Amino acid sequence: MMHECYQIWAQLEHEAGTQLHRQTGLLLLGMKENQELKTIQANLSRQRVEHQCLSSEELKQRFPNIRLPRGEVGLLDNSGGVIYAYKALRALQDAIRQLGGIVRDGEKVVEINPGLLVTVKTTSRSYQAKSLVITAGPWTNQLLRPLGIEMPL
């Protein structure tokens, strides 16, 4: 999904006429035997994402201002970057409005009822739609749990 996401961010940047993302690279640090670091490296390799595994010595040479514990290695994901959250959210909301959508901000979702029409109850009112996109971040499972759904977040 990463490759497709970067394309979509670039398209939104073009449509919004402003920079929403800056590619900086992402340096992950950990002990050589760290399983999480190994899993991330395997995923990057599988997805053919440009990255580098850096030994302790390579880290010292490349990043002399970082003091690392003995045996720590690095994984440099060259595709990593920063999303300018406020600008990105504003651009997404503007795009939704341009496509005829309505943005309701500041309403807490308290209940979701599936059906031919999905009903969403908020602290302000109820809405119905043919489909629903949930972008609740860490609160997603709290919303989905009453429906018997749990996402591995």
From TrEMBL:
User: Could you say which cofactors this protein requires?
Assistant: FAD
Keyword annotations of the record: FAD, Flavoprotein, Oxidoreductase
Q: Does the keyword Cell membrane apply?
A: no
Residues in FAD dependent oxidoreductase domain copies: 1-147
> From which domain of life does this come?
Eukaryota
Q: Does the keyword Flavoprotein apply?
A: yes
Provide the family line.
Answer: Belongs to the MSOX/MTOX family.
Q: What is this protein called?
A: Pipecolic acid and sarcosine oxidase
The protein's gene is named PIPOX
